[in-house]
Amino acid sequence: MTSDSILAVERLSAGYGRVAVLRDVSVDLAAGEMVALIGANGAGKTTLLRSLAGLLKPSGGRVWLEGADVTGMAPERLVRQGMALVPEGRMLFGPMTVTENLLLGAHSRPRRDESVRTDMDRVSALFPVLVERSSQPAATLSGGEQQMLAVGRALMSSPRVLLLDEPSLGLAPKVIADIFRVLKSLRSEGLSILLVEQDARLALRHADRGYVMRTGEIALAGTGAQLLENDDVRHIYLGARHDSRG
Questions:
Q1: How far is CA 194 from its chain centroid?
Q2: Counts of helices then strands in the chain (DSSP H, E)
Q3: With contact defined as beta carbons under 8 Å apart, do 116 and 109 qualify?
Q4: What kind and span of H or E run contains 123?
Q5: Which SS3 state, helix, strand or coil, does residue 7 take?
């Protein structure tokens, strides 16, 4: 763990039952940094995010958030500690309105807390369409609007570390550009972002650094520019748009 790391993962191992997925994975994330995690389908990327978010208990290794050991901590405690996950598939509550879904992101604070209003105003500024759709059930939104809502809900917890799993999956190019423009703005404000993305080229083009996962291990690491120019990465992951869910 380096002195400027807001998130440090040290030799993390995890899996499902007797099936080991992650083996001694070490990654770190600095304040205000966007780090991309790429790799083929089944490499372990989603398993890593689930382990960091408290949805899967690691079988070995440590996770440090702002210097505190949060290994195996329950999801709701991790949210209060400053970590938020935007899961693959968004996992919204379809019958509930846009506003109700957003307020769920701030469930640990009283609704009259001034900070909740501040966060709601911030999300509204980032995603104006959510203001227009505020009273609509989440299930009636387009795919792009649902992704914006999922990101907005995570931001309502005032995270310092944002974990995103496949934010561009199934979205139109214009919507993807809008999502990444917001991520760039959030990073400039100091938010740290760990991104799993199916489009490796897109992810590395926006990321400060990246890690390449292969069969549950970190195979390569470097700046986004370095990985874009790496022959192995270019041949295996950048030849065509692919599904890299893990």
A1: 5
A2: 10, 10
A3: yes
A4: helix 114-126
A5: strand
The mean pLDDT of 174-182, rounded to a whole number, is: 93
Max Cα distance, the chain (Å): 54
Tell me which residue has tokens 């689930």: 50
- What are phi and psi for residue 44, nearest 5 degrees? 115, 10
Tokens, residue 230: 């790496």
Residue with tokens 């997925």: 21
Name all domains of the chain by residue range, CATH numbers in brackets.
Answer: 1-82+160-246 (3.40.50.300), 91-158 (no CATH)
pLDDT digits (tens, 9 = 90+) for 18-54: 899 999 999 999 999 999 999 988 899 999 999 999 9
pLDDT at 4: 79
The whole-model pTM stands at 0.89
Cβ(156)–Cβ(81) below 8 Å? no
